[in-house]
Design brief:
InterPro entries: Acyl_CoA_acyltransferase (IPR016181), GNAT_dom (IPR000182). This is N-acetyltransferase. By secondary structure, the protein is of the alpha+beta class. The protein is built from eight helices and seven strands. It has a seven-stranded mixed β-sheet. Helix 7 (121-135) links the parallel strand 4 (105-112) and strand 5.
């Protein structure tokens, strides 16, 4: 499967492709990853066009906020990955409060377009997100996946990824403050 896809830093020249990925997801089209970056009131007030406009300004900054995957010329998926310090929600969250004072990068969002779902594509996105973070100086990666075995509902949103996917990629659980949402880490050096 991997040879069918190309992976790119999420930069302004790829905005049309990134928006195609977001627009193929009912929550993604309105969220645009603003959930992680903005205070809750701003995120909710921007739901839809406000968050779309906010994301367009985010993507023009010097550090790409994630990676884009394409299948030939067709946009296929997104993974949000950046230094933890840029995410307002993580600074304010008790369940996802810092484990320690190490500088870590966070992987917090996966969106896969419908034609590419249920093929293990999120795992491939994760692999390339790790490579992207390493190439940009990350010493440690952190994520907040869903533990499907501990989840009461099968309809849980899986945008943060699944625990099994991260464990299979070498991440280890470092703490769990919510029953179905552990914090996992991967050493990058």
């Amino acid at each position: 499967m991997q040879d069918r896809f190309s992976f790119f830093p999420a930069t302004a020249d790829r905005l049309t492709d990134i928006e195609a990925v977001f627009d193929d997801c009912s929550s993604g089209r309105n969220c645009r990853c603003a959930y992680w970056y903005l205070p809750n009131a701003d995120y909710k007030a921007g739901w839809g066009e406000g968050n779309r406009s906010w994301f367009r300004s985010l993507i023009t900054q010097s550090r790409p906020p994630g990676i884009l995957a394409c299948n030939e010329d067709e946009p296929a998926g997104w993974c949000g990955v950046a230094p933890r310090t840029v995410f307002d929600r993580l600074r304010r969250s008790k369940p996802f409060a810092p484990v320690d004072d190490r500088p870590v990068w966070s992987i917090n969002c996966f969106i896969v377009r419908k034609p590419f779902r249920r093929q293990g594509f999120s795992r491939l996105l994760l692999k390339h997100a790790v490579e992207f973070a390493r190439a940009n100086g990350a010493e440690c990666l952190e994520a907040y996946p869903v533990d499907q075995a501990a989840r009461a509902s099968n309809g849980a949103e899986l945008y943060p990824g699944t625990l099994s996917m991260f464990l299979d990629a070498g991440f280890v659980e470092v703490t769990r403050r919510l029953p179905a949402r552990p914090i996992v880490r991967l050493e990058c050096r």
